[in-house]
Amino acid sequence: MSCSASNVHSPMVAASNFACCAQSTYVQDQVCTQINITPVAPTTTTQDLYVIDINPAKLYVTGTLSISSAPVGSTLRVNYLLGSVLVETDTIIPGTALAFTKSGFDTIQLSYTTISGSATPNIVGELCLTIRYPVS
Predict the structure, then answer these.
(1) What are the sequence ranges of the domains in the chain?
(2) pLDDT tens, 96-110?
(3) How many CA atoms lie within 13 A of 9 on its CB side?
(4) How far apart are CA 35 and CA 23, in angstroms?
(5) Span 47-83, pLDDT tens digits
(6) Which segments within 59-122 are labelled E, that is strand?
(7) In the CATH scheme, what is the code of domain 31-129?
(8) What residues contact 7, with CB distance under 8 A and at least 6 apart?
(9) CA distances from 8 to 1, 96, 99 (A)
(10) Cis amide bond preceding 121, omega within 30
């Protein structure tokens, strides 16, 4: 999945029709955004990348986060929060991408630690998400 700029597509509605599950109608949105964070060294900082106000128990998100550059020696963590509670965390290395499918959170946050004297280049990347939730 590749996005050239911040973009939100019109929601798509789909019905599940599986024998093993109750039939539900889902809305599917796609959100893509460029990331360009100017870090401060030496420090640990967090930046919210995505926040949603839908019942997290009914939220299903598949996505990718790619980081193309970050200061040398930086530690980058992707935090999934429910309110202020950390639900899960992943680590990402600059020059790589992280693919995930998650539910039970309402915020995706990037936490980064930079070392002394290492505040360049900016943290640059892209977050692309496909969000699905049932229509009540």
Answers:
(1) 31-129
(2) 999 999 999 999 999
(3) 15
(4) 37
(5) 999 999 888 888 899 999 999 999 988 889 999 999 9
(6) 60-69, 75-82, 85-92, 96-102, 107-114
(7) 2.60.120
(8) 30, 31, 32, 33
(9) 14, 24, 19
(10) yes
With 0-12 CB in 10 A as exposed, 13-18 as middle and 19+ as buried, what is 22?
A: exposed
Tell me how far apart the alpha carbons of residues 24 and 37 are, in angstroms, rounded to a whole number: 39
The CA distance from 66 to 89, in Å, is 15
Q: Which two tokens stand for residue 111?
A: 């936490």
Query: Distance between CA 57 and CA 1 in Å, rounded?
Result: 25
- Residues 74 and 100: their CA atoms lie apart, in Å, by 22
